[in-house]
From TrEMBL:
Residues 83-110 form a coiled coil. InterPro entries: Ribosomal_bS16, Ribosomal_bS16_dom_sf. The keyword Coiled coil applies. GO terms for biological process: translation. The gene is rpsP. One of its GO terms (cellular component) is cytoplasm. HAMAP family: Ribosomal_bS16. Keywords: Coiled coil, Ribonucleoprotein, Ribosomal protein. Belongs to the bacterial ribosomal protein bS16 family. The keyword Transcription does not apply. Pfam families: Ribosomal_S16. GO terms for molecular function: structural constituent of ribosome. It comes from Candidatus Similichlamydia laticola. This is Small ribosomal subunit protein bS16.
Amino acid sequence: MALKIRLRQQGQRNRKVYRFVVADARCPREGRYIECLGWYNPFAVGSQLEFVLSEEKTLYWLEKGAQPTESFLNFLNKSAPAAVQLLEARRSLRARKRKEERRRSATRRKAGA
């Protein structure tokens, strides 16, 4: 099951509120979700909180392999920049490993041919 961390719309017409949720990538935007990680209120005024995001739950699901959307990454960068840096480091490490593997397989093909 491919997991996504994304925003789920809720609220009234012209007064949307969003929840950060972990959901199956095949489920619709307002459909079933596995866990709620926090919320975002774009209409927050004054001392009201604009958004709340559980860093512990987020790191747990990222370690499990859930893929964050771009909009979720923007909020994660505001609340927990260390988590975003960790995620980027993992991505670059995976990319380096893939690149090395491609190089090895190419040299094997050249040696065999």
